[in-house]
Give the backbone structure.
Amino acid sequence: MLYWIIDSRKRLVTHTAEGELTRGDLTAYFDAVTAADAWSWRKLFDARKARPTMTAEDLMAIGVRIRAQHARGVAGPIAIVLPEVESDTFTRLLGFIAVADRPMRVFKTLDPARQWIETT
């Protein structure tokens, strides 16, 4: 499950993934950010409690969507907090995200990620 808050005053999108993270979750999130015209805003992605459950086909579709969005314009800075257990799926998603020309950092805990994104 993926939850998000789009804060237009702060120009910040905060999203939290808990439990199973699916292609549908990410697609709904991308649709919401697109509708809010918030791709250039700062983003804080807390995935500490997430377990991605995506097939190779799902990952390719997500990668295509991310790269298409990057091609449309400037991507905002992003702070990503990953789970302690490594995941090949998250590694592949990070590869798609890292292609954009923007500030990006990966963290193990939430507080440093929040501090970094709020000052970026």
About this structure: The chain has a mean pLDDT of 91. The CA atoms of residues 71 and 100 lie 8 Å apart. The longest helix spans residues 56-72. The two ends are 27 Å apart (CA to CA).
